[in-house]
Amino acid sequence: MKVIRVLLFTFISFGLLVTFLPAQATVSETRQSATLIDGKRFISTEGGFSIEIAVAPTETTDFGTETSKKKGVDIGKHYLWKFEKTTYTIMYSPSLDSNGDPATQTLEEVSSGTRKGLLRSGAKLLSERSILFLNKYPGIEFRYITVGGDKFVNRSFLVDSTGYQVEGAFSDLKDEKEVLATLDSFKLLNDEK
Q: Which residues touch 115 (CB under 8 Å, ≥6 apart)?
């Protein structure tokens, strides 16, 4: 599975995040003060989530511009994990523009952007359904297949004013169960108690 394809589809998928993605986004090491591995879970205190992946991300991209960083505002991050048979990405994006100023985002904008991005890239949309994350946060799940044959499950939802996207990719159908279990392990830190 090509990492470039995964990154391409991930950045295309989260429609509103693409709108706010600054040109100077940088790839950096995972910061120990903001993330940690606790037993079998990766925890992002900045993003307010955990997931059952017991290693640090392969890459972390900070969407902040110099302006937002000077303000001390976190406008979101993208985490990528690459494994032999599967790949996972998580993005979070508060309702802020690339400079850290307030902006709005709706689930309809997120799902519309995802749908358009997938179709523009030549991916085949297999299914689209509404979901309710933790039985209270509205979201949408897309399943699609890329031109290269990689299969994706993409879940996007809004928690208050923060957008989240959790995505898993696999090539072989026998790996789908593992991907779904990992995606299902995504939790919000304030809801884990």
A: 15, 125, 128, 142
